[in-house]
Amino acid sequence: MTSTTDANADEAAPGGYGELRAQLATLTTEAFRPELAEIDQLPTREIARIMNGEDATVPAAVAEKLPQIAAAIDATAERMARGGRLVYAGAGTAGRLGVLDASECPPTFNTDPSEVIGLIAGGPSAMVKAVEGAEDSKELAAADLDALGLTADDTVVGISASGRTPYAIGAVEHARAKGALTLGLSCNADSALAAAAEHGLEIVVGPELLTGSTRLKAGTAQKLVLNMLSTITMIRLGKTYGNLMVDVRASNEKLRARSRRIVSLATGAGDEEIEAALAATDGEVKNAILTILGGVDGPTAATLLADSDGHLRAALAAVRTT
């Protein structure tokens, strides 16, 4: 039988739970809020009101870091423009958010699945079931990145609400040693993750409604920043025309209808002309718009876009100057 004295000694031992508890006690995301200690006694509508109020503070926290976010995006776009990849690495909720953002890039921007990648500690099965201990391994993160054949043109984004998750820190440290661009996205100030990365993005949203439940405000903040990172990077890479998703991949009926609407909004053309343009360009929205606005055929549109690195405005300018 373990005595109370022995248990206390274990917690106080270096590297033991006592040390980890002490670390967690210093984190804003883990702070206890005594004013909410009896929230479970409140009416449901009142809890919802409080929670909604908490969520409303997140955009302001993101806004405080817009200069740093913009700098990180420009650096990421520069790497991707020369063939680099965008890789997210995190554990638990943070890892799932990275995988989510990566998985939405192919249908939205017609990227290859290998261009934006989400790594979660413990592998794909960790998306739906926690893999015990996976987040505690820097070595696992390094191995996951090595399996991708990481290069200096790639960008690795470590994601961790606490900013102390070994998997995320290990990913950033390993990537930086390889010469890759590194971003560290966390929700605590002065985090180890931000210190390890070239671009530290610390979105401090404050203590959670439920103590330590960083799937709440911290998760929302991370999602907002990841939305910016992927979306604005793709805008910089020419994946949009104005605010239209001209590289959308029409993989289902809804997206096929959206494709036709996008061509219509970009060109003002009628249904018959839109159908002809899409038929001449194998359904590629950007190419179809160029055939209509530029008055060129499908193969010429493809060549112009290739010469313009996929930027529709540049391809249109090339048509108008010839």
Find the CATH topology of the largest domain: Rossmann fold
CATH superfamily of the largest domain: Glucose-6-phosphate isomerase like protein, domain 1
The tally of beta strands, per DSSP, is 5
SS class: alpha/beta
Secondary-structure element series: HHHHHEHEHEHEHEHHHHHH
In spatial order, strands of the major sheet run 2-1-3-4-5
Number of domains: 2
Return residue spans where pLDDT drops below 50 for at least 5 consecutive residues.
1-14
Main β sheet profile:
5 strands, parallel
Q: Over all CA atoms, what is the radius of gyration?
A: 23 Å
Mean pLDDT across every amino acid position: 92
Tell me the overall shape.
Answer: globular
Family: Belongs to the GCKR-like family. MurNAc-6-P etherase subfamily.
Function: Specifically catalyzes the cleavage of the D-lactyl ether substituent of MurNAc 6-phosphate, producing GlcNAc 6-phosphate and D-lactate.
Keywords: Carbohydrate metabolism, Lyase
EC number: 4.2.1.126
Task: Please tell me about this protein's structure.
The protein contains 15 helices and 5 strands. It is α/β, with parallel strands linked by helices. It folds into 2 domains: 204 residues, Rossmann fold; 80 residues, Helicase, Ruva Protein, domain 3, CATH 1.10.8. A 5-stranded parallel beta sheet has the order 2-1-3-4-5, sandwiched between helices. The longest helix is centred in the last third of the chain and has 20 residues. The relative contact order is 0.11. The N terminus is likely disordered.
